[in-house]
């Protein structure tokens, strides 16, 4: 559809979801039976541009309409919201959705990455690890808490891991923001859609799968219901089984830690301070120590 057509459809459609996480705003507009337009905007904006050729299905680059990234999808729920919905058992649907989406990301890693941009989440993490944030801000408090727990050596270690992912010897094309929130679950038998930015990112191949595994690891750790915790562990094990062949297990373990640290930083930056962030700092310290112990070879890429 043209920009004018999309604009008209958005005006006529029924808004069914609206969500503001601080770092990005999402609204979902129903345009027909099992047909939706997902509209995303963020403080970082959206870079105009085109990926190098068609993206692997079901990955989709957006149209840019009035500053929003607009995608066509076949459902109104992300995989993140579906997994957090306690009204029904979503594990089987989640497993099928991940099995459909992960191969597209692996195929993306075969695209040229000469002109790709650094993934924004990892770059934001590196920035606050190496540069003190605005004094008095929640992010500054998080950095101070982290520095007290991890020490200078720990801060330098995590920033070094960031650079390993962002500046590898063999960069590939990556999604850069591979998360459950960017996976739209298809209603009924409709296909899932993976929302991507309009330009390709470049990094180590381990970043994408590590970012997803980090999110699943975090969900498993914070989940108190043992049945649901086991379900999330099963999803994570499935991704490890069919999505990580040929990748460095050491670098994947580092990416898992960095994804959780990035989430803590984004929460502080866009939502504010919460006492649970101190617990996250200790969790990240333990996971980082385990990554080093379990993978002494380092796992550079």
From TrEMBL:
Protein name in UniProt: Aminoglycoside phosphotransferase domain-containing protein
Superkingdom, natural source: Bacteria
Organism: Amycolatopsis suaedae
Family annotation (InterPro entries): Kinase-like_dom_sf
Gene3D superfamilies per the UniProt record, alphabetical: 3.90.1200.10
